[in-house]
Amino acid sequence: MFSWLTKPLQEYNRMREMNRLPHAILLCAPEGVGAGVLAREFARSFLCLAGKDENCNCHSCSMLKNNSHPDLTVVDRGNSQSIGVDAMRQGINSLVGTPTNGHGRVLLINQANCMTVQASNALLKTLEEPAGNTLIVLTTENIRSILPTIISRSMRVQVNIPDISEFNEFLKQQTSSDRDFSVELYVSGMSPLKVLDWIDNRYDEHLHACLELFESVMRGDGDIRKLASELEALSREDSSMLYGLMYAVIKDVMGYQSGISPENLKILRDKEALGNLASIHPDSLSEAARKVIMLKGAGVGPTGIKNSIIGILQLLNWLELLRGY
Ligand SMILES: [Zn+2]
């Protein structure tokens, strides 16, 4: 189990040992910190026949490891934008009846914030009259999108983001290296699992190359069009890398303008580039920030040549804003 998840897991285990588990748990965690892993561990522990930890090999835990546990049902949005009422009804129906394994049934709802209103209402009925010996685990990155009536009928478990050094330590261990992953972590919005995925695909090298090119353009000795096409290539690898980079850049320039010294900034280090960026009018800076949000929105939907051209034009426009044109 990831070190930053041990605290909520201990909390859960304490309640289980006291036989005080609720019928529903709402697991709130930012993206990419492993909420799904923790939710599955809740389910495993609830269904375990031996009452042991994650290394247990009882019949139930073995089935769970093989993704073939008949008493665990997972509902998620899959390839669609939302979790609809039909998928939800199926999930709810799986809680009814005698459990195959004699240890209750679990329904896992991933990204519960994607439930449609009808799906939420169907779930609410079940939460109002829960069946015995069942556990519903909902995970969400955004609690504001969950019906208040669902929140009030669930036990809320919050995963907090630890200090960046803990994530850095984790990534060093996972990659058996002594590198510093702060840039990747800031760009990912503090998501160590996303960073791990980037490293697996070697996207992190491209990210660093883009950052260097960006600084050289902002110093005045780099090719802005080359930068725009490199950034566009970065967004094709993982669009969240591009938007994360743009956010981090703007935040750093704002921080520098308010007096933070370069060594304490998140990703920008080049003093000459920073000096030039600091002369940007705060209005242009907020306009550039607005542009990032717009670009992020444009990234959703069908991709293709048209989108990529629009993307690159907007990128050029964004970069030129930053250069103070
Ligand atoms: Zn077990």
Name of the CATH class of the largest domain: Alpha Beta
How many angstroms does the end-to-end distance come to? 50 Å
CATH architecture of the largest domain: 3-Layer(aba) Sandwich
Give the overall shape, derived from the CA principal axes.
elongated
Largest sheet: 5 strands, parallel
The structural class is alpha/beta
Number of domains: 2
- Number of strand elements: 5
Hetero groups in this structure are:
zinc ion
What percent strand? 5-15%
By CATH, the superfamily of the largest domain comes out as P-loop containing nucleotide triphosphate hydrolases
Query: What do we call the CATH topology of the largest domain?
Result: Rossmann fold
Query: Helical stretch count?
Result: 15
Which radius of gyration do the C-alpha atoms yield? Answer: 23 Å
In short:
With 325 residues, this protein is of the alpha/beta class. It is 55% helix and 8% strand. The termini are far apart.
Q: Can you describe this structure?
A:
The chain has helices at residues 6-17, 35-47, 59-65, 85-93, 117-128, 148-152, 164-175, 182-187, 192-200, 203-219, 224-237, 239-257, 271-278, 282-298, 305-322; strands at 24-28, 72-75, 105-109, 134-140, 155-158. It is an alpha/beta fold and 325 residues long. Helices cover 55% and strands 8% of the residues. Strand 2, helix 4 and strand 3 (105-109) form a beta-alpha-beta unit. Helix 10 packs antiparallel against helix 11 (224-237) and helix 10 (203-219) crosses helix 13 (271-278). It has 15 helices and five strands. The radius of gyration is 23 Å and the shape is elongated. The longest helix has 19 residues, at 239-257.
